[in-house]
Amino acid sequence: MAHISAHGRTKVETLKNEFKAAYGVGIRIYNGVKFADDSTTLARVRTDKTSKEWSPEGAIEINGKMLVGNVEKKFLDVLGVKVQIEDLQRNLADNGVTLTSLSGKSNAASTTNDVDVPTKKSNKTGLIAIIIVVVIVVVVLLSR
After folding, report:
1. Is 107 strand, coil or helix?
2. Which of 16, 46, 68, 85 could form a disulfide with 80 if both were Cys (CB 3.0 to 4.6 A apart)?
3. Where are the domains of the chain?
């Protein structure tokens, strides 16, 4: 599972590239209400430049199991940077899903081959269909 980290000296472009490589989706980084310039650092685009808790050395660690909303909140709380994470269609991602689920990599990784394996539900459906056919045949034979 991909892990990335960011701190105040991280360039916007670097974070965007690492995020895309790690999770397969984009991240929007803001400078006020506009998108941040790729050549600037996260320290330069932080929202609260007077916060005493924030320091340029502050860093965050992100992993694929984290929820989108928690990642966005962590960027704001720790680095003072407003971000929004995109889905595969480049729309804003749902805050209640994990980073890994956005890329679909977790589903692709669990598929080991192309053979369709019937589920329990399809087995029950097939059994019910057989029973119905047998009942119809019995009814037709008894009605003669």
Report:
1. helix
2. 46
3. 3-110
